[in-house]
Design a protein that fits this description.
The chain is of the alpha+beta class. The protein is about 15% helix and about 30% strand. It has one domain (about 10-60, about 70-85). It has a four-stranded antiparallel sheet, with no helix packed on it. Strand 3 and strand 4 form a beta hairpin.
Length: about 90
């Protein structure tokens, strides 16, 4: 019996462990006021994820305007920390 699904959804949330992967969408639901997708995973079975965390998320509130999402980049923060650590430390005592 073939597995029917509604299409594929890619996980876009920057901190989700499955970010960048695409999964078949089995169902859409509204859970506690949040639009949710039920996705199929070959090894783990099905799991749910907020729709907004996928490429199925609602369009921007600024329709017609390009909106650029800005995400926290841990790698850049670590690079900045390493750079600051390399700076000579000055003493405030004279």
């Amino acid at each position: 019996m073939p597995n029917h699904h509604l299409g594929l959804a890619e996980i876009l949330h920057p901190f989700h462990p499955l970010r960048g992967q695409r999964f078949p969408v089995l169902k859409t639901r509204r859970v506690a006021g949040i639009d949710t997708l039920i996705l199929s995973h070959a090894e783990r079975g099905s799991f749910s994820i907020p729709r907004e965390w996928t490429d199925w998320g609602a369009p921007s509130a600024h329709d017609g305007q390009e909106a650029v999402a800005h995400y926290f980049d841990l790698g850049m923060l670590l690079d900045l920390t390493a750079l600051i650590d390399q700076l000579p430390h000055s003493s405030s005592k004279k």
